[in-house]
Each structure stands twice: as structure tokens, then as C-alpha cells.
Amino acid sequence: MKRELDFEKENFAGALEIVKTLRQKGHEAFFVGGCVRDALLGIPCDEIDIATSATPSQVRGVFAKTVAVGESFGVVLVINGDINFEVATFRRESAYGDGRHPESVHYTKSPQEDVRRRDFTINGLLYDPVSFELYDYVGGLEDIEGGIIRTIGDPEKRLSEDRLRMMRAVRFATCLSFKLDAASYSAIRDLASGISSVSGERMRDELVKILTRRNPGDGLRLLSSCDLLSHFLPEVECMHGVRQPPEFHPEGDVFEHTCLVMDMLYRNTEGSYSGELAVAALLHDVGKPPTYTESDRIRFNGHDRVGAKMSEDICRRLRFSGKQIKRISDLILEHLKFKDVFNMRESTIKRFLSLPYFEEHMQMHLADCLASHGKTDAYDFIREKIEEYGREEIKPHPLLSGRDLIDLGYSPGPVFSEILGQVEELQLENRLSSKEKAIEFVLENYSGNFD
Fold first, then answer.
1. Mind listing the pLDDT tens digit of every residue in the chain (451 residues)?
2. Could you write out the three-class secondary structure of the chain?
């Protein structure tokens, strides 16, 4: 059927040139997969993949700049200008022995065979950018129009081939506001335990995509409903049914609160936030289930510290880097400090504002508030303080250094930290404003520390 589709102009020009060049050499070539799906839905897509009857060696022979990124699976990267395009040979595949890779790949000249080995019908469409012809051999257009995520062929077979497809199904369903068809949903629940065999890196990347795209709260709910969450993030699944004080959390239990936090984070930032912030928001209350107590009211004493430690273990399991783990853990550890800002000394507020990635602390706190009691007074107060102080005053250049103390005749040792800390405190309180005054303070208050 004829259907003229819009693609991102720069990418389209380069991809169209590749298709035309392959055609001139006697090969078939089409746009395929997610770029076609997104164009039909009117969603911007920054990648255009190409499927062709040309073998990898033929592709490399046609284009001057190529990289064989997955030649054993028929994939070659063609570099056109500054843009990389993935060009894949039509293929059929044998059984997947390891739950990720086919045991063998056989090239074919048939585009129908190629699309039938793909994951979901909505990703199985081919598009001819020259004639504007859309080819649908798997019912993908009908499912796009009906808002359905359906596997190509038998769901259990298709999902067993690569178990990460279970999480991909959840991502497509939630970020596109589609629904899983009944057979695919049932198959995911039956196969859910198999997600634990997927590598931490692959689960991490798919989880971050779910949490940073549209409807992340629904993504979390569907991961739980499909029984996937209990197998790769049981600490989050445990949030179900954990009651909270209704005066602070009228929205419900810890799990529902977390889903709402994810949605508020997406809404407030218009979807522009880091994967680290997304995971910190997901795990910010992960310490509540193990710290739940009831006395005068429901309490979660120390859940910030417990949650920060738990997040480190979870993130190591998902193969985050050490730097990422520290960033995520710190966001969780500090998230309760906002409730104390009205009683903080000026120096304490400035130190708080000087935390690395402080804007992410602010974004998470705002989402946390809007997903519960709705009060943003602490957030507004800190915003005013940021404007009042200005960046330089929040983190001014230190008045004294360790070298200055040595020049004054002090011996390096524990007293250095005490002196420099006290000087910094007074500087942040605006009670010391020059190096001369700082030296005068030190000499008056720290005698007896000379060599």
C-alpha cells in the first residue's frame, strides 16, 4: 500500500541515499522496524535501520566507509557523512540455544522471511522510501492502528528466543500507550522467571528506557503485573501492600507512591532526566519495607540510609558503574533532608546546595512531594535560596588552605580538618569574608599547634 511517511530530514537523506545505491547495484533495500513504526505514529525517530538482500560482503563492497558490527548476524554499519546507519541482510534464524542468540543464521532473498523472525508485529513493517510503498507481512499496521503489542508468531517461542523481549514488550506497551495482547501477556507471565538469566547490563539498559520514556509509572505497574519485577527487582516488588501514614501519603502504599513519583518526574522535566535520577527515584523508598514499624503512627526510621545501602547492592547487580552507583546512592541518602531546610543554619543550607548534581536532588524531591501530600514549600524555599545566594556564594573559594596553615607554622594532622572546617563554616555564615580575617581567627582560637 502507498503511504508517504515523514522522517527526520538529515537522517532520511542519508538513509535514502543508501537504499538507492543498493538498488542501483541490483539489491532490494527497505527501511525497517522502529523507524517505520514511529513514522506511522508521528513520533520523531533519530535512527533509520535498513534491511537488504545484499550480503554483508556485498554491502561492504558497495560503500566506502563501513564497520562490521555484527557480521555473523548479517549486520554492517554504513557511515554516510556523520551518521551511522545499520544495514542488515535479510535472514532467517535457527533455534536460540542460549535465550539470546540464534545458533545459526541463513541469508535469504525474501523480505517476508526476514520480518517473520522479528519480535513484534509493530516492528515488522518494511517501507520503500523511493516509491512510498509500505509492506506489511505480519499484521503490524493493524496492530499499530489498534494499539496492540503482539509477537510475530507463537508468543512463547518468540519470547523464549531472547528473554529480554519480555521487558521490551512492556516498554513498547507503556511508552506507546498500547496494550499487550492476551496471548503475549500470558506467555510473559509463564516465562517471567527466565528474565533472571538475562545479563545485568541488558536488564539495566531496558529498565532505564522504561523509566525515562512516556508513562514510566505504568511501565512499573506492568512489570509487576507480568511477574517480571519479582524476578529481577524483588526489592521493588516488596513495596506492594506496605502502608504509609495517610496524612502524608493519601495516594496509597509505597509501590503506588513510587509509580506516581516516576510519572511526576517525567511530567515535571518533560522527559529530560538522567538514567541515574530515574533509578534513584525508583529506589528512593526501597528501604521502607524493611524499616516498617507502627507505634504512634506508621514509621520508616532510617529508611533513607537503609535504602541507599540497598540501592548499592541492586545497582551492582545491574552492572552500573561505581560512579553511577555513588550518584544514585547519594540521591537516596539525602532525599529526606528537604524536610529540615527551614531549621538549617545558613552554612548547612549552603553545604546542602553544594551537593553534586543538586538539581537532580531538587527534581526528585519535587516529584516525591507531588506524588504524595502535594506540598512544595521546602522546594520553593530552596529555589528562593538558590536565587538569593547565587552560585559563587553557595560554594565560595576557600579562604584558607592546608598550605596556608603550614605557612602559619601549624603541623599537618587532624587539627587541619577541624580548623579548615571551622573557617569554612564561618565563611558560609558570612562571619569571615577575607583571608586576613580568617588568619586572625585561626591565630586567636587555635594556639599551641605550632611545631
1. 888 888 888 889 999 999 999 999 999 999 999 999 999 999 988 899 999 999 999 999 999 999 988 767 789 999 998 899 999 999 886 566 555 565 667 889 999 999 999 999 999 999 999 999 999 999 999 999 999 999 999 999 999 999 999 999 999 999 999 999 999 999 999 999 999 999 999 999 999 999 999 999 999 999 999 999 999 999 999 999 999 999 889 999 999 999 999 999 999 999 999 999 999 999 999 999 999 999 889 999 999 999 999 999 999 999 999 999 999 999 999 999 999 999 999 889 988 998 889 999 999 999 999 999 999 999 999 999 998 887 666 777 788 888 888 888 877 777 777 888 888 878 777 788 888 888 888 888 886 554 4
2. CECCCCCCHHHHHHHHHHHHHHHHCCCCEEEECHHHHHHHHCCCCCCCEEEECCCHHHHHHHCCCEEEEEHHHCEEEEEECCEEEEEEECEEECCECCCCCECCEEECCCHHHHHHCCCEHHHCEEEECCCCEEEECCCHHHHHHHCEECECCCHHHHHHHCCCHHHHHHHHHHHCCCEECHHHHHHHHHHHHHHHHCCHHHHHHHHHHHHHCCCHHHHHHHHHHCCCHHHHCHHHHCCCCCCCCCCCCCCCCHHHHHHHHHHHHHHHHCCCCCHHHHHHHHHCCCCHHHHCEECCCEECCCHHHHHHHHHHHHHHHCCCCHHHHHHHHHHHHCCCHHHHHHHCCHHHHHHHHCCCCHHHHHHHHHHHHHCCCCCCHHHHHHHHHHHHHHHHHHCCCCCCCHHHHHHCCECCCHHHHHHHHHHHHHHHCCCCCCHHHHHHHHHHHCCCCEC
